[in-house]
Specification:
The protein is an alpha/beta fold. The protein contains four helices and six strands. It has a domain at about 25-95: Rossmann fold (3-Layer(aba) Sandwich). The chain has helices at about 30-45, 60-70, 90-95, 115-120, and strands at about 1-10, 50-55, 80, 105-110, 135-140, 155-160. It has a six-stranded mixed sheet, sandwiched between helices. The mean pLDDT is about 95.
């Protein structure tokens, strides 16, 4: 069965309040603008999630909700995963391993540097220096269960981000 994983870095966050902890930083104006645009892009590409899993940090929660609204996903069904907050790449595999086999399309919304490192480990045919804010990488695999992802052949079919001119 073909399965699709969309990895999304949170949208641009605000640094305007130096008293906010990193975990509690909200999106800034650009982030609130970009996340719905990327959700709209996913909907136009007919990439609709069966499940969204996101870091529980404020900026990833906000990004996930804005994208979910645009793709028609119930925001109350987003799974919040604290261990995705500034995690190492192997944590992505841990999170994916727990996904039910009824899920065909999975979105994961997380942070750099872990998301860039994880994306670069997916396929020898694809590499990026830095996942931009609100950037997305889509991967397709033919496998029966998500637990087989580490040993499955992966095809990167999507790399989207907003250039400064698009913002």
């Amino acid at each position: 069965m073909e399965r699709t994983l969309i990895l999304i870095r949170h949208a641009k966050s605000s640094w305007s309040n130096p008293l906010h902890s990193d975990f509690d930083r909200p999106l800034n104006e650009r982030g609130n603008h970009d996340a719905p645009l990327m959700g709209k892009k996913l909907k136009e590409l007919n990439i609709i999630p069966d499940l969204i899993i996101a870091s529980s940090a404020k900026r990833t929660r906000q990004t996930a909700k804005l994208i979910a609204e645009k793709v028609g996903y119930n925001v109350d069904e987003i799974k919040w995963e604290e261990k995705l907050y500034h995690c190492i790449p192997s944590v992505f595999d841990e999170v994916i391993f727990e996904v039910g086999d009824d899920v065909k399309t999975l979105f994961i919304i997380a942070h750099n540097p872990g998301i860039t490192e994880y994306v670069n480990d997916l396929s020898p045919k694809f590499a990026i220096d830095h996942m931009p804010t609100c950037g997305m990488v889509g991967v397709q695999m033919d496998m029966d269960e998500w637990g087989n992802m580490p040993i499955s052949e992966k095809k990167v079919f999507l790399y989207e981000y907003l250039a400064k001119d698009d913002q």
